[in-house]
Amino acid sequence: MDAERLQRMIDRVKRGKLSRRGFIERVAAVGLTAPLANQLLAVAGIAMPTSSGIHYTPTKRGGGGTLKLLWWEGPTLLNPHFANGTKDQNASRLFYEPLAAWTPDGTLKPVLAAEIPSVENGSLAKDGKSVIWKLKQGVKWHDGTPFTADDVVFNWQYAKDPQTAAVTAGSYIGITVEKIDDYTVKILFAKPTPFWADAFVAANGCIIPKHLFAPYIGSKSRNAPWNLKPVGTGPYKFKTFTPGTLVQGVIFQDYHQPNRPYFDAVDMKGGGDATSAARAVLQTGEYDYAWDLQVSWDLLKKILAGGKGKLAFASGSAIEHIQVNFTDPNKVVDGERSSIKTTNPTLSDPIVRKALSLLIDRKSVQAYIYGEAGETTANFLNGPAQFVSKKTSWSYNVKKATDLLDANGWKPGPDGIRQKDGKKLSWLFQTSINQPRQETQEIIKQACKKAGIELRLKAILASVYFSSDVGNDETYPKFYADLQMYETEPPSPDPGFWMQQFLSSQVASKANKWQGRNITRWRNAEYDKIYAETTTTLDPVKRAAMFIKLNDLVVDHVVVIPLVFRKSVGASIDGLMMQLSGWDDDVWNLPDWFKETKA
Amino acid sequence: MPGSTPASLIAEGPEVFRAPELVAGPRLSLRRQAWRRFRKHTLAVASLFILGFLVLGVVVGPLLWRVPMGAIDLSAMLQGPLLDHPFGTNGLGQDLLARMIFGGRISLAVGVAAMAVAVGIGVAVGAIAGMASGRVDAALMWLTDLFLALPQLPLLLLLMYLFRGALRAAFGDEGGIFLLIVVVIGGLRWMSLARLVRAQFLSLREKEFIEAARALGASRARLMLRHLLPNALGPVIVAGTIEVANAIIIESTLSFLGLGFPPDVPTWGHMLYDAQQYLDSAPHWALIPGAAIFLSVLSINFIGDGLRDALDPRRVI
């Protein structure tokens, strides 16, 4: 589809001759995804519809009884700026709200904001250096005080103060926030920032009240009684809190969204383990929702047969992948192995890497090991949809791999292992100790064996492998092996930060104490150049195309071999209407949760 | 002197004093006498058969059962024991019988080799301490006490961590780990043997036959190797069998912690570790290696028990 025709279609939508849906269907036919189509319309000045995905039917507030949540890791404190992991973020989110939340398809939904900033409504600067948020009016804190722009500005001052030591500081340090009037704030960026929706958005963006926290800014921040007794704007008011065990809330009658919430109270119980949490919802029905079920698929299927509920999936883009070491892990240069001054004797050959990627049976790994909680993929970047490449593909073909190696001089030696110029295709393949990973290792090893490649497997205790101990040689950033496998997840829907991990400037080495994020040590000038452009390009469509190109470069050069992208799994009881977002907390749209009563 | 003569009966060397008058009936060789005593221990005899069967199984098994242990068949995963997979399959559809045979070779070899290391060090230290007495004895016993005081599992983990890489590079993945496990387990289990041998030496060297040998001009080395050691060996053999069982269990522990062999080498301990999450859906996967460890350890212990009886000449048949 050429640009001209696309423009004509967009114009027809503008004039009302073509429905939004019709437009999306037409562009989908040529391979554009729905979110990308939405973005096209947004750039052309047609506002994006916001949907929470739940059709909310209750016609009055309350009356739904108690919503019982089971968080097998119990929350320990209730200030979103001090949230230690997602358990605390989720518990704080019962009471506090951000300006906007991330929906499952990676778009923004206003919560405390009146609307989502955009170029066409004039709130998003064309040069990418500022953004204006209009706040919703008539929002009240649980103690009755009105919510205003002062609260938003205060949260910036609070979080950016190094003395406060907020975990959310990263989102607030590089910006300046100004109050325009009581219901408008302006965020100023030092340089053009394509990803402007970080501060005041989603988990890191929950707003705490100025009138209570103002005396506790800076070094006194941890003494605030409100850290354990939240007063927010959310659908539930704080009732009791026993750290690690139980959080209780009751309905807030002045909540700013009509007819919400449906439940009269909420209990968030902590403790136990993932398996027993799954059983408590799916088999016994004691709880309405259990989060983050890290349970093997076989077992989860058996528990699901209990028949009391169903599974809820959050599609983020956590990816289980294999990394290829471009340096030599067996040679010591200046006191470090896998030094950037070396090249891997075999894996530096693109043919060898190509053959390796043909030997990985992703379908079997997905079907037999990860089940429905995973999907096979050829891409490293798997979401949101507008960043997902359509050009890549994968296949499992031992014959093709052996032909490729044969044709390029990698012939089987006397021991059956292929070699060329005395260099053997024999690699050390490491990962953490985790049964699905060992099974994946074994599947790949057997396929490689058929093709005359020897894999030597190594499994390292997860606490060692993922530790940040610089003295330990078995950590994943040191990568003292030829291949390694683990899961990684982008921290936000914008891939900007995440895709830094293939930049030449980010190579992990002794010099930077292995803090560099480029662990494969792959260096490519084209990648570096395109990445540099993404940091200043503001046009979302162009920028998305750049990230797709970056992904394709990584995949085509077989820098990493993506296996499956995994969803996080929750369990909800039958009748509970809720939806997870892979980009936000499990309870991101808690006000919309309700139970369908059985007729 | 009561109890002094019989101590010599357990050995077979020509210089050993014999006491045939203690044995009723026709004169039997010492070996035959020991065998007769061993036969009386029913459990030990049964254990001998079980262990013999296990050893035979892992040695000749691959000749009879030719299914490759690594072959993956995902359509047959977690299958219970059936005709084409007599022991069933694991989570990847790999044949458990083939893996049991392969794993048994490693587990039993680790057990025997680690026992040999422990017995070697233990006998050497114990014999030297027992013979030398004085300062050397004191120093060696301090060393023994020192080793006894070391916390074994943390030390084991530390040593595995420190030397795994170097040995892997020198002897290959499996060879290096095998060597390390054997040396480390053997090196941490010799102390009780050393004390045992030393105690034997201290009591034996005051006996008349030693005095007689010394009077005949036997050198210290000859006294030690020809007279004392053979007589002290009975309890050592018994303690050694227990070390075999111990080594198998420690190897299982290490595999369980992920510090043993590479993850795709199916030792019995490692198979047990893999199977733990599937206890309710595929119990055979855990029960089979579990039973193999249980049977081999138990039978080795019973055989040790039987040997103790058999090698104790005071026992009258």
Which range best describes the helical content of chain B: under 10%, 10-25%, 25-40%, 40-55%, 55-70% or over 70%? 55-70%
Overall pLDDT of chain B, averaged? 80
The computed structural class of chain A is alpha+beta
Any idea how many domains of chain B?
1
Count of DSSP-assigned helices of chain A = 15
Q: CATH homologous superfamily of chain B?
A: MetI-like
Give, in order, the helices and strands of chain B.
HHHHHHHHHHH
Structural class of chain B: mainly alpha
User: What is the CATH C-level name of chain B?
Assistant: Mainly Alpha
Described by the principal axes of the CA atoms, the overall outline of chain B is globular
Q: In percent, how helical is the residue content of chain A? A: 10-25%
Largest interface: A-B, 24 and 21 residues
| Multimerization state | heterodimer
| Count of helix runs of chain B | 11
- Identify the CATH homologous superfamily of one domain in chain A: Dipeptide-binding Protein, Domain 3
Specify the biggest β-sheet of chain A: 11 strands, mixed
Give a short overview.
The complex is a heterodimer of chains A (599) and B (317). Chain A is of the alpha+beta class. Chain A contains 15 helices and 21 strands.
Summary keywords:
heterodimer, A: 599 residues, alpha+beta, 3-stranded antiparallel β-sheet, 15 helices, globular, B: 317 residues, mainly alpha, MetI-like fold, 11 helices
Helices and strands in order, then pairings?
The complex is a heterodimer of chains A (599) and B (317).
Chain A: H1 3-15, H2 20-29, H3 34-43, E1 66-71, H4 86-93, E2 100-102, E3 108-110, E4 130-134, H5 149-160, E5 175-181, E6 184-189, H6 210-213, E7 236-242, E8 246-251, E9 265-270, H7 274-282, E10 289-290, H8 297-304, E11 309-324, H9 350-358, H10 362-370, E12 374-376, H11 398-407, E13 411-412, E14 418-420, E15 423-424, E16 426-432, H12 435-450, E17 454-460, H13 462-465, E18 483-488, H14 525-534, H15 540-556, E19 560-573, E20 576-577, E21 594-595
Parallel strand pairs in A: 1-9, 1-10, 16-17, 16-18
Antiparallel strand pairs in A: 2-3, 4-6, 5-6, 7-8, 8-9, 10-19, 11-18, 11-19, 12-19, 13-14, 14-15, 20-21
Chain B: H1 30-40, H2 42-64, H3 96-132, H4 134-149, H5 152-171, H6 173-187, H7 191-204, H8 208-215, H9 220-256, H10 268-275, H11 283-310
